[in-house]
Each structure stands twice: as C-alpha cells, then as structure tokens.
Fold:
Amino acid sequence: MSICQADQRYYQGRRPKDILEQKFPMALIHEAVGVVVRDDSGTFALGTPVAMVPNIPGDPVKGVYENYADGFLFLSSGADGFMREIVDLPIEQVVEIPEVSVVTAQSEMTSVACHAVDRWQALADGTSKRVAIWGDGSVGYILAAVLRELYPDLYIAVIGTHHEKLDFFTMANDTFIASKLPADFSIDDAFECVGGAGSVSAVAEIIQVIRPQGNVILMGVTENPIAVETRMVLEKGLTLVGSSRSGRDDFVCAAKLWESPKFRSRIRRIVYEEEPVRTVDDIHRVFMNDLGTTFKTAFKWEL
Structure:
C-alpha cells in the first residue's frame, strides 16, 4: 500500500467538518496492489499480482471518461478504501502487473499521470515540443517520469520551490525555482501539480510563460477557490483542462510502464518503505511517519 495526500487529509481531519461527517467512518487508502485469492470468473489464476482500481464507474456516457461520469464511486473517498482484510472488487477493477512491491504500489498515482498525459495528447495532437511541470512533489515527479518514458525526445522542465527535491528530477531537461525563470523561458503546454494555496502563483506563472493557444492541465487539488487571470487566458487563447483520478485504461498504461527497468528504477528513488502494518498502532505509525517523508511512503499490509 502507499499513502496519498488525500488519505492524509482524511486521517488528520483536514477536510471541512460537513465533509468528514458525511464520509466517516471509512477505511482509508486507495493506492494498493495485491494478489488474487479467488476469482469465480476464471480470468485470473490464484496468486496473480494485480493493481486494484479504486474508481468504480457509474453510468456510462459516450465521450465522458469513467472517472468523471455521474454515479462513479471512489474508494477511500466515498466508500471504504483498501485497508481491509479482504478486498472484493468487480473483475474490471483489477489489472495484472508484473509483481507486488513498494514500487508497483505506485500504480494508482502512475495511472493518474497516464490519464493526464492522455488528456494532454488529445489536445496537443503531437505538436507540442516543450512542456513544463509546476510542482516538485510526488505527482510532479511521477508525471515527469511517465512523460520521459513515453516521449523520450520531449523537452521537459520542472518548476518547484525546493532545490533538494528538484535534484531528484534527473529525467528533466531543466529544473527551475518558481519565480526565477529565465527571461526568455517559454513552453507550448503546462501541467500544474502544485495544489493548495501554491496553485495561485503556479497558474499565474504558467499563464505568463506559455505560448498562445497552449494547453494547461490542472492536476493540483485546492480546498478553496483560486484567482485566475482570465484576461490573459482569453488574450492567449489558452485551454485549461482539469485532470483528476483515472480509469481502467490508465491502469493498463501503468502496468505496461512497470515492464521498463529504467522507469521502475526512477519510481523506486522516491519511495520510502515502512515496516509492515500488523496492528492499528502500526496504521498510526505509518501515517505519522509519512508526514516527514519527502515523497512517497509504502508498506506491506499484514493486518
């Protein structure tokens, strides 16, 4: 299993009171992999390693991704997550992976990056040569790794606020500290992975440096509304796209990426492996220790 910041917000109670009252009690964690212990359909052999898809589709709508269609259910948000002894899922919600490990436990976040890249490609149509990622956290890192694996020749810049975190982004062509970009810096498209209050300055900086008719993929989560300079959005003819969560096809993309040793090695660099969870006290331990982890915390679930 792996801890997401969304799970941390629920664990710490850092969501509006009315939201917490609606959702609790609830088992946490939506980033998990495991092995098949029973499959009445005969699709998977017992012991097959699989990634578990937390997004349960609602009513299918032509042209609408399953993670946005009305009626979908997201585990560890609107229903119990994977911190259970046995997880029972529809056959469509599991995807075979090469192995169960703390690296492949990042399948969900990798699928989120795959989904964002898919949304971007549908807009860019192969014409984008220079992209930049705002955000030096786990989302930005995994997105950069996915982009580099899928588009080896693409120019990728990463903009963040921590030198020590930017040093991890060895797959990027350039890294910069936010608000200190070169005077002539420009990009075709951008991915915003900052979230929170930092989204305000990130989006503003993107709008300044992106070329006319560029695409801005918004991935950062904010609890409060942020201001956007719509005058420049209109003047440049920009397209702003929200990209959140993922669907089964994106997990298939992630599963294929695990076949690349270089990609697995890149992801392993940001994963801190905790001791296994065997008791309720261990659950508290991994969530508290995660607060001091630079990127991702993963652990074996043995409760």
Remarks:
- Residues 5-107+246-298 form a domain with the Quinone Oxidoreductase; Chain A, domain 1 fold (CATH 3.90.180.10).
- The first strand starts at residue 33 and ends at 35.
- The mean pLDDT is 96.
- The longest helix spans residues 107-124.
